[in-house]
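Private note to self, pasted from the team thread so I don't lose it. Backbone tokens:
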């Protein structure tokens, strides 16, 4: 505010606020589309996005350390359940169905994930975690 003046400083702050709202909305929408498109086919996308926003609100309210401790409790349970699923599905696995994956190599997948927009916006969001002591 001291550099740009009181009016332009508040205007720049307002632009940053709307930028963060916009980027956060894009990330939540992408997460919702990913989960509904790949795992929870019949679940409404609004419910998935709302659950994610709720989890994030709990993390902000209680602190990131609580989520870390909760992960320590839940990760062994999830690994156990995934192991049981793999053991039960193992007789039906056909390795021939895995070969078309990465038929053009790994580069198209890397190029699809490395868009400049995602680098720019998510680097700004990571600054919040890096600024915390």
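Design output:
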């Amino acid at each position: 505010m001291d550099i740009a003046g009181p009016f332009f400083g508040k205007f720049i702050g307002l632009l940053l606020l709307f930028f963060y709202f916009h980027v956060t909305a894009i990330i939540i929408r992408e997460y919702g589309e990913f989960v509904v498109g790949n795992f929870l086919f019949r679940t409404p996308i609004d419910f998935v996005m709302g659950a994610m926003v709720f989890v994030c609100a709990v993390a902000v309210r209680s602190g990131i350390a609580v989520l870390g401790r909760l992960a320590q409790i839940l990760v062994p349970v999830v690994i156990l359940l995934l192991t049981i699923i793999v053991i039960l599905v193992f007789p039906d696995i056909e390795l021939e169905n895995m070969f078309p994956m990465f038929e053009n190599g790994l580069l198209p997948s890397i190029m699809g994930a490395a868009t400049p927009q995602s680098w720019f916006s998510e680097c700004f969001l990571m600054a919040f975690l890096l600024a915390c002591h």
